[in-house]
Structures are given as structure tokens and as C-alpha cells.
Specification:
Length: 220
């Protein structure tokens, strides 16, 4: 089933899409009154560490977009769930994300893309956003000490970073140092007393995500 055939039908739609190396298992979340001028594409945590498109932070991202009338597409990376292929260190995963982004734009040429990802998925989202025009990039708990978020000569913009100050996986000082290397520094949304998986903070995360999206995305 084509993505575009489902974009006008409210609800959660399970999809099997064609990726670079085989099928991709995906979930399209469409709000009751969808805006067709934006689609968000979401990335999940590390494929080899239990990350899936149903991770709670990723689904919180999807719900934030839904409440603002923006459809979101999240998908299992290679080798996760029913998605074919094998883990590719973020390279192949970002190629799949780009393929889905271009598919959306091919059928809906006036649609602006929003990329968002959590943990490893934020690196996948970064690589996609660095290679295609977009309205916003959101990276939640980006592991900047493990992956190259300066890989491309042109930085994605606008780009917002969200980080817990008590993150036990991605140290807050490392992310703070990273955002301050930019000129001007990247916008950083800090969550005090918050660990990597935002336990007990998901409601607040959704609320603040919605504020960020409103700030950078022109809603119809």
C-alpha cells in the first residue's frame, strides 16, 4: 500500500515498504485532520540493542506530531522486526530514510519534511537531513561521542537538540560541548534529572516537543 494512499485516512497504518535492500516494516500515524504540508520521518534507537520503531520516546515523538496535525512515518531499521537487511552503522539506515522521504515528496511535491530521531536514530535522522531540504531536524539524546554529526560539509538547519541532564548513556557535558561548537550554538532543550530513556518524563517531553515544533514549523 502506497504511503500517499493512507495519508488522508486518520489512524495508525501498518505498512510494508520497499527499501534499498528489501522490505521495511513501517507505521504511519495520521491525525484526524491532517496537514499535508508536512510529514515527519522518525528514527529509533540502536538496532543491536533492542531499539525498534515502537520505542516509547519514538512513539512520544509521533504523538506530538499527531496532536499538531502532522502525519509521521516511523520504520524499523534493517534487520529489526519484519525489516529485511542487516545493521549498517547508520549509513544504510539513513539511505532508507532518504528513500522514504523522497517517496513522500515525489507523490506530494509541496510537502516539507521533518526529521526526528532518538539516540542512534538521531544519527540516522541527521544524515538524512544533511542531504535533503527539510523544515526541521530534532535529535533526542544524540550519541555525538560515538557517531560523526559533523560528517557533511553543510550542517542541517534548523536543528534542535534535546538532552537529559542525567543521561547515563550519552553524557550531558559531551552534548553541551557539541552544541556549543556551532556558530551560533545549536538550540538545546535541557531536561533536568532525566535519564536516557526519559522515564517519568514522557508527558513533559511531548509537551515541550510540541512547543519546539510550533516554533520552527509553520502550521496551517
Amino acid at each position: 500500500m502506497l504511503i500517499t494512499e493512507k495519508l488522508s485516512i486518520p489512524g495508525d497504518h501498518a505498512l510494508l515498504l520497499s527499501g534499498q535492500v528489501g522490505q521495511l516494516e513501517a507505521q504511519l500515524m495520521v491525525p484526524v485532520d491532517p496537514q499535508h504540508n508536512h510529514v515527519a520521518i522518525l528514527g529509533h534507537p540502536h538496532s543491536l540493542q533492542g531499539g525498534t520503531m515502537n520505542n516509547k520516546v519514538v512513539t512520544t515523538l509521533a504523538r506530538a506530531f499527531k496532536e499538531l496535525g502532522i502525519a509521521s512515518l516511523r520504520f524499523n531499521f534493517r534487520g529489526v522486526g519484519a525489516s529485511q537487511g542487516t545493521y549498517d552503522e547508520g549509513i544504510g539506515e539513513s539511505e532508507d530514510m532518504l528513500l522514504l522521504a523522497r517517496l513522500c515528496q515525489e507523490h506530494l511535491p509541496d510537502t516539507e519534511l521533518i526529521f526526528a530521531g532518538f539516540s542512534f536514530g538521531s544519527y540516522v535522522a541527521y544524515r538524512a537531513a544533511a542531504q535533503v531540504s527539510h523544515a526541521l531536524l530534532i535529535t533526542v539524546a544524540p550519541p555525538v561521542h560515538h557517531y560523526d554529526y559533523k560528517e557533511f560539509s553543510k550542517d542541517p538547519t534548523p536543528w534542535v537538540v534535546i538532552q537529559g541532564e542525567a543521561d547515563e548513556v550519552v553524557p550531558f557535558p559531551v552534548v553541551l560541548d557539541f552544541v556549543e561548537r556551532f556558530s551560533p550554538p545549536l538550540p538545546l532543550l535541557r531536561f533536568p534529572e532525566t535519564g536516557h530513556f526519559f522515564h517519568g518524563k514522557l508527558i513533559d517531553l511531548k509537551s515541550q516537543l510540541m512547543d519546539v515544533i510550533r516554533q520552527y514549523v509553520e502550521l496551517a
